[in-house]
């Protein structure tokens, strides 16, 4: 039998009240893989991330983490099972950088100084955060806040990381540095599903990408194939396939 996917969903429907926004969505990310989820605005990408992370119950379908059905498992428990999510540049604004990292490290045992070592390890990767360790997170720049979010995932070392709106509002030079950190996380063994407005950012990172339209997956291609097909990428991002 092939190894189970790091994360997968099958036949997922989701709705906001009477309005259905996902229709039978199937997505899978293998262990160690980086996969993009692309598409025009409002097609359901964030909703799918919410379903995978456990913030929203699907109306139909299943979510599997390393082969285990987690459809009914609450979001907080999914984090303990190795599924982390980063959305935008979220941080606890009134807490300092160090306090944020210690808080994110709730999945790490406090015994034998393990959490302190994990936080120190994250600071070693992000010296800029170390310099700002006693500053409230609300005073960080957007790029620094995104570093804080990535530092959190370095501490949690999840099996799977879902990333939504990674590059939103950040200068290209800042995004470039952060992408390197995402690659590093991936090399450490984290599989990623990356929702990206910028298809260029997504394709510079991922091995494979799904394209969504009107709540369904309409295409799936390797990044290598898409690199040869700029017209295809453009038409998929403009919509009109469903
Ligand atoms: N809380 C909500 N209540 C009602 N409708 C919602 C809610 N959140 C999202 N929607 C609607 O669901 C649809 C899918 O939204 P979703 O945010 O998943 O799309 P998206 O592809 O992530 O969009 P974007 O790229 O603009 O972030 C949209 O029509 C949106 O207006």
TrEMBL record:
PROSITE patterns: ABC_TRANSPORTER_1, ABC_TRANSPORTER_2
GO BP annotations, alphabetical order: L-amino acid transport
Pfam families found in the cross-reference section: ABC_tran (PF00005)
InterPro entries linked to this entry: AAA+_ATPase (IPR003593), ABC_transporter-like_ATP-bd (IPR003439), ABC_transporter-like_CS (IPR017871), BCAA_Transport_ATP-bd_LivF (IPR052156), P-loop_NTPase (IPR027417)
PANTHER family in UniProt: HIGH-AFFINITY BRANCHED-CHAIN AMINO ACID TRANSPORT ATP-BINDING PROTEIN LIVF (PTHR43820:SF4)
SMART domains: AAA
Designated name of the protein: ABC transporter ATP-binding protein
Alphabetic keyword roster: Amino-acid transport, ATP-binding, Nucleotide-binding, Transport
Domain ABC transporter as annotated: residue spans: 7-239
Family: Belongs to the ABC transporter superfamily.
Record-level Gene Ontology MF annotations: ATP binding; ATP hydrolysis activity; branched-chain amino acid transmembrane transporter activity
């Amino acid at each position: 039998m092939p190894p189970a996917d790091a994360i997968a969903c099958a036949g997922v429907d989701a709705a906001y009240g009477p309005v259905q926004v996902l229709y039978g969505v199937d997505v899978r990310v293998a262990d160690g893989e980086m996969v993009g989820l692309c598409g025009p605005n409002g097609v359901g990408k964030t909703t799918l991330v919410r379903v995978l992370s456990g913030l929203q119950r699907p109306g139909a379908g299943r979510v599997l983490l390393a082969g285990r059905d987690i459809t009914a498992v609450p979001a907080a428990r999914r984090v303990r099972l190795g599924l982390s999510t980063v959305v935008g540049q979220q941080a606890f604004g009134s807490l300092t950088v160090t306090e944020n990292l210690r808080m994110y490290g709730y999945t790490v045992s406090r015994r034998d100084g393990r959490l302190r070592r994990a936080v120190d390890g994250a600071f070693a990767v992000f010296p800029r955060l170390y310099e700002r360790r006693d500053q409230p997170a609300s005073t960080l720049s957007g790029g620094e806040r995104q570093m804080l979010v990535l530092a959190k995932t370095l501490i949690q070392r999840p099996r799977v990381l879902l990333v939504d709106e990674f590059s939103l509002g950040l200068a290209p030079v800042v995004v470039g540095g952060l992408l390197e950190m995402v690659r590093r996380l991936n090399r450490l063994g984290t599989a990623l599903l990356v929702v990206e407005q910028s298809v260029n950012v997504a394709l510079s990172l991922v091995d494979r990408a799904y394209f969504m339209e009107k709540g369904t997956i309409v295409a799936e291609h390797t990044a290598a194939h898409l690199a040869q097909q700029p017209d295809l990428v453009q038409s998929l991002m403009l919509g009109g396939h469903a």
